[in-house]
Amino acid sequence: MAVAKGWQRQPRNGRGQVVYTNGSFELIVVPGRDSTSRYGDDLLKYQLEHERELDPYRASSWTTSQNLRLIEVGGRSMAEGTFTWDSAGGTELYVRNLAMLVGNRYHVVQVRGPDAERDQVDRLFEQASGSYTPK
């Protein structure tokens, strides 16, 4: 996956995430942590009800979601969406999220940033999601 210079990579954490940070932006990659045997194969349901990276969205008292859609490209199934919520520190976050199914495993690419910098979050997301190759 392509990540621009200046990003700090953290080792895989206990939630199965590889996290990259750069200032107020965060890129979270989850390479195949969850399976269809546990969550089924409905990508939108997985994204909205089970994906742990969206737990803050489900827990927040103020949220929005937009552009939720299923995508089929070259035999690969994906769900994409745009989310906003208030962070624990009170900052409004703008989040782009992609969940894809590879075999029977879910892979996630998510970019978070300040709501006021949506264009930058969109650029970072397009770069990351477009270059992610699951193994």
- Write out the strand line-up for the largest beta sheet, numbering strands in chain order: 1-2-3-7-6-5-4
Which residues form runs of ≥5 with pLDDT under 50?
none
Kindly provide the radius of gyration, computed on alpha-carbon positions and rounded to a whole number of angstroms. Answer: 14 Å
> What is the average per-residue confidence, as pLDDT, rounded to a whole number?
94
The portion of residues forming beta strands comes to: over 45%
Shape: globular
Query: Helix and strand succession?
Result: EEEHHHEEEEH
Number of strands: 7
Distance N to C terminus: 11 Å
Report on the biggest sheet.
7 strands, antiparallel
Task: Write a concise keyword list for the protein shown above.
single chain; 4 helices; 135 residues; alpha+beta; 7-stranded antiparallel beta sheet
Give a written overview of the molecule.
Strands 1-2-3-7-6-5-4 form a seven-stranded antiparallel β-sheet, with helices on both faces. It has helices at residues 36-39, 43-50, 55-59, 118-131; strands at 8-9, 18-22, 25-35, 63-73, 76-86, 92-102, 105-114. The protein is α+β, with helices and mostly antiparallel strands and 135 residues long. It is built from four helices and seven strands.
